[in-house]
Amino acid sequence: MILNNNEESSCTIFGDLRYLTFDKFGYSFHGTCNYILAQECSHNGIDPQFKIIGVNSGKASLTWTRRVIIYISLFNGTFFTIHLLPKKVIREHTNIISVPHVRYNDWPEYRAFEDPTTGHIVVSFKLIGLKVIWDGKSFVEIILTKRHQSKVCGLCGNFNGDPSDDLISRYASSSNHSISHFARSWAYDISCTQHQTKRNYLNYVRFA
C-alpha cells in the first residue's frame, strides 16, 4: 500500500470490541481494562505528543468501549485531557463542555462538534493532524494524517501501509502474531486485572 501526500487513514473500534487498524487489519479482543488505542511512539523517553485511551467494560457475554480519553502533551511535561463520555458528554479536564466548542490561541487548539449526518461527536486537532469520533455508546474512530505514518503504535497498529505487521506488542520491535499477547501488552494500567467476560476474552478472531 502506497499512501499519497493527502491521504488520511482511520482506525475503528466498534461493537463487541472489534478493531480495524489504520492499515485495515481486523481482529477482535475482549479485554476489560483501559488500553492504548493509538499514540505517537517515541524511543527516546520523550512523552508522546498524543495518546488515546479506550476504557473498556464487560458484562455477561458482552464487552465494549465505555469511554475514550485523549491526552495531548503540553510544554510543561503535563497533559491536556479530554474525556469522551457516555451519551456524548465531553469533559475538558474537570469541566463539561457543550458543542460546538472551539479552543484557540492556546495549545492545543481544537474544535468539537456534532456531525450533522451521523450525530457523532468529532474532536479535531488540525495542527496535530488528529481527529477522534465518538458516538456516545461504543463506536470510536481515530483519523490521522499522513504525517503520522510509521510513527504511531497501540491497538490501532503502526500506520505504515502494511497490515501484516500490525501486531507489534508494546515491548517488542517485531510483529507478534498472538493477538492476545499483543493486545494485553497495550493495557494502559499494567496493574489492571484483565478480567474474562462470560465468553473468555481470549476468544479472538481475525475478520475481513
UniProtKB/TrEMBL annotation:
In its keyword annotation, does this UniProt entry include Endoplasmic reticulum?
A: no
InterPro entries to which the protein is assigned, alphabetical:
Mucin_vWF_Thrombospondin_sf, VWF_type-D
- Which parts of the chain span the membrane according to its record? none
For this UniProt record, the keywords arranged alphabetically read as follows: Disulfide bond, Glycoprotein
Q: Does the keyword Phosphoprotein apply?
A: no
Q: What is this protein called?
A: VWFD domain-containing protein
Highest taxon above the source species: Eukaryota
Where the record annotates domain VWFD, the positions are 9-193
